[in-house]
Design a protein that fits this description.
This protein is an alpha/beta fold. It has 15 helices and five strands. It is 50% helix and 9% strand. One of its GO terms (molecular function) is protein-tyrosine sulfotransferase activity.
Length: 279
């Protein structure tokens, strides 16, 4: 089995940018978001299936659509077993990604679905040798971006989210990352460090996943970004250079009362201290 790396974090934390930087590396193959583990395990919205430990009824159609439309490789569907066998299904799905990596001459599979952070325990159970990159971004920026994108593209994001929902998304994701800060197969990365010092930050990531840094990651990441980003759902990457978000989105979107409320809620997390403890 090829080395497997999962890139996770709260949505709108910059995971598509980091994925694009890594995916141009000569050793790494990466693909559009699969969301497989969100459908592999039924949640509370499917109480009977959840109680019986079954996969979501959405698993089969979602993965078939992904392989046919996102990958454009319907002939690979033959590798998928019956969704009743969850571990086998997950292994065979990853095998499909490995086949694609082989075709590209790549030795590492990078899977990026931010919300897989909520499935970490189950992913580690199925793939104990996997490595995980957690991307952490300033909470106010994430809340503003998540609020904006879900209102602009509600159908693609499961509906528009209110401020409290956006806050909960970020807080929950960061608190999960906090549990894994000392684990050697988990590497925590600050988005702000990636923007301010991309070479040094990428060198640390490369060391964590045991590959050599390649300057091509910075110089030509726009090539992979054009493939992996999706403007139609607000998932875009600036291909002209690695720059921070200077739009002051937080102060533009929210009034002073909302800003104060958000910052007060976010104060329970010391992100700087958390990132400094990374393995």
């Amino acid at each position: 089995m090829k080395p497997l790396v999962f890139l996770i974090g709260c949505s709108r934390s910059g995971t598509t940018l980091l994925q694009s930087l890594l995916a141009i590396h000569p050793d790494i193959a990466s693909f559009p978001e699969t969301h497989i583990f969100q459908y592999l395990f039924a949640n509370s919205y499917e109480p009977r299936r959840h109680a019986l430990g079954l996969s979501s009824r959405h698993l089969k159609p979602k993965m078939e659509k992904f392989i046919k439309e996102e990958l454009g490789r319907p002939e690979l569907l033959k590798y998928l077993p019956h969704p009743l066998f969850k571990k086998l299904y997950a292994e065979k799905f990853i095998k499909i990604l490995e086949i694609l990596a082989d075709e590209e001459g790549k030795k590492i599979v990078l899977e990026k679905t931010p919300d897989h952070i909520y499935c970490l325990e189950k992913i580690e159970k199925y793939f104990p040798q996997a490595k995980f990159i957690h991307l952490l971004r300033n909470g106010a920026d994430v809340v503003a971006s998540l609020y904006e994108v879900t209102h602009e593209y509600p159908q693609s994001w499961g509906g528009a989210r209110n401020i409290d929902q956006c806050l909960t998304n970020w807080i929950n994701a960061v608190q999960i990352s906090q549990k894994y800060v000392s684990k050697p197969n988990h590497h925590l990365v600050r988005y702000e460090n990636l923007i301010q010092a991309p070479k040094e930050t990428l060198q640390e990531i490369c060391t964590a996943i045991k590959i050599n840094f390649d300057q091509n990651m910075i110089d030509n990441y726009g090539i992979s970004a054009k493939i992996l980003s999706s403007d139609s759902v607000g998932r875009s990457v600036n291909c002209q250079g690695i720059i921070g978000n200077s739009s002051n989105k937080f102060t533009r979107i929210f009034n002073l009362e909302q800003q104060e409320y958000i910052l007060n809620r976010l104060s329970i997390i010391d992100l700087d201290n958390l990132a400094n403890k990374k393995s």
